[in-house]
Predict the structure.
Amino acid sequence: QVQLVESGGGLVQAGGSLRLSCAASGRTFSSYVVGWFRQVPGKEREFVARILWSGGMPLYSDSVEGRFTISRDTAKSMVYLQMNSLKPEDTAVYYCNWKTYEQEYWGQGTQVTVSS
C-alpha cells in the first residue's frame, strides 16, 4: 500500500503561483510514474502532468504546458507541481496520482481556486 497526502492548495489571484506537494509513504520502492490530475464538479478527472519515478520524461497536458512544472524527490518520496501564471480555468481539486508496478493510488485532493 502507498498512502498519499497532498498539500499546498489555496486561493490565488490570476497570474499568481502555487506549489502543490504530495508526500508518499508505504511501499514506494516499486514506484513507476507519478503525476497530477484535476477535477471540477460535473466533469471528469483530467490529466495534468506526470513524470517517471526513475527520472525524466515529464509530460503535460496542453492546457498547462509552459506554465506548470512537475518534479519529484525520490529520497523524500515527494512529488511537486509548481503552477505559475495561474488562470481561473485552473480552478479545480488537484489529485496526486501514484503508480507502482502493482497498483495505482490517489490522494485525497487539494483545492486550488484562482480568482479573476
